[in-house]
Amino acid sequence: MNASTPTRAALALVAAFALAVPAATAAPTVKEFDVPTADTQPTDIANVDGKLWFVEQVGGKIGRVTPGAPPLIEEFTPPSQAGSMTPINGLQDVARGPDGNVWVSATNVVAKVPPNNPTGGIAYGGLGLADPRGLAAGPDGNVWVVDAGADDVKRVTTAGALVGSAIELGMGCGPRNIARGPDQNMWVTCFGNGKVVRIKGDGSAADPFTLAAGSTPWDITSGPDGKLWFTGQKHDVSSITTAGTPKPFTSKGLDPFGITVGPDKALWYAEFGDSTIGRVTTAGKTSQLTGLTANSGPRYIAAGPANTLWFTEQTANKIGRITGVVQPPKPPAKANLAGSKDSVTVNEERRFTYGFKAGKGLKGRAIFESARKITVNGEKRKVTFARRSFTVPPSGKVTVRVRLRKDKFAILEEKGTVRVRIRVILRNAAGLTSTASRTFKLKAP
User: Fold this and answer.
1) Which of 146, 172, 347, 375 qualifies as a FRET site for 353, CA 20 to 30 Å off?
2) Contact call for residues 152 and 166 (beta carbons, < 8 A)
């Protein structure tokens, strides 16, 4: 009989976090929650259905965290292979499969567990798996599994059948984890020989990229910047372009392990060696979250619902939750110039108006300049006819009132008509901007 055991016991800790955030924004906060069974050593963790699923290296169960106040933590006996009553053991990694199920790797097998029926899973053996580790959903609708014991990657259908031949990674690779990249290829970390391997989405080719001497890449994820990001032992956290160019950064803490993208579009990673959580921006600036239980051994981390992050503490036998991670502000929507005039005539007093729509309350600047170079006093150049600042009223309708300087008016009179480009730059409270433009005919009276 599969068993589940809930817990609501929790230890709250307020974290000291070295991040530059606005004064009005509270620092991220971490809370730790006990796994119901003692000494289970939770390791990998993944968000599958808005809940967090984890595997226990020693406890041998699959765990589920239902977020709440406090969260509900349950443990389930893993499935058995067809025809066997013995649950699988040696759980390694967990991921969301292409079918929406929870997929785990274990000794010589992989297994799928329906999120709505944790006791109704099935394990698949006979796939030639020697030491399966990381799993990921591939672009072909299959589950891709790295096999550390065979230095290859195997593809498995969601029905548990092997697809084609194994994809060789090279002797000594010692693969650990795999992720689907923004280029729709699959990317693998080679812990054994310090390489990252790119595999075409159809499995037809594998291209290894050698990292700096001594590199030990472990976990890998697709970043928000079009690159892959991965961790390594010591103080290594790195990015790699889809063309294969790596760039290492130095983490604040020791032994970065699991890595994920946070709600703030930074990369967050568990630092096992000194019981901290690291953070690196896509520009490479690292910082650190402290305040976890001493010697707790944070191992893997995953983004959860409602701007949260969740991580396992292998040696402390806890699940951690980080809240208060702020989403990055977004630039304002561009001004709507679609209904603006295609032709405007300046009056004898050198005045004209131009209207458009924009988000209420935004501040902005309208710049009127020649769309191309025009000849002025024998010299071809672009001419800026006017600049005007404005605040968008509650109606969202902006009317910019312009009076040309005499010298600009003289240029217009000489030309009769000038094709002008208006650029509308909007700025929000966060200081972010957006720019919209269109051309129209500016005519002399």
Assistant:
1) 375
2) yes
Task: Assess whether pLDDT exceeds 70 at residue 214.
Answer: yes
Residue 157 confidence (pLDDT) above 90: yes
Q: How confident is the model over 244-289, as pLDDT tens digits? A: 999 999 999 999 999 999 999 999 999 999 999 999 999 999 999 9
Burial of 10 (C-beta count, 10 Å sphere; 0-12/13-18/19+) = middle
Count the neighbouring beta carbons within 10 Å of the beta carbon of residue 120: 11
Q: What is the secondary structure of 239-298 as a DSSP string?
A: EE-TTS-EEEEE-SSS-EEEEEE-TTSSEEEEEGGGTEEEEE-TT--EEEE--SPTT--E
Instruction: Give the DSSP H or E segment for 407.
Output: helix 406-415
Question: Residue 21: pLDDT above 80?
Answer: no
Select from 65, 113, 60 the least CA-distant residue to 89.
Answer: 60
Residues in Cβ contact with 220 at an 8 Å cutoff, skipping those fewer than 6 apart = 177, 178, 179, 187, 188, 189, 196, 228, 229, 230, 231, 259
pLDDT above 60 for 22? no
What does the CA dihedral 256, 257, 261, 263 come to, rounded to 10 degrees? -70
Q: How far apart are CA 220 and CA 239, in angstroms?
A: 9
Tokens, residue 169: 């990674």
The pLDDT of residue 26? 64
**DSSP run (H or E) holding 408:** helix 406-415
Q: Find, among 153, 158, 159, the residue nearest to 173 by Cα.
A: 153
- The band of 8, judged by pLDDT with boundaries at 50, 70 and 90, is very low
- State the residue for tokens 């990229």: 209
Q: How many CA atoms lie within 13 Å of 306's alpha carbon, on the beta-carbon side?
A: 10
Against a cut of 0.85, is the pTM above it? no
Starting from the edge strand earliest in sequence, which strands make up the sheet with 417-427, in order? 343-345, 433-443, 417-427, 363-370, 384-391
74 three-state secondary structure: strand
Extract the tokens encoding 15. Answer: 């974290």
Give 3-state DSSP helix, strand, coil % of the chain, rounded to 5: 5, 50, 50
Q: Which of 36-40, 81-85, 385-389 has the lowest mean pLDDT?
A: 81-85
Residues in the chain: 445
Placement of tokens 């921006």 in the chain: 281
User: Looking at residue 2, what is its pLDDT?
Assistant: 40
Alpha helices (H) along 124-174: none
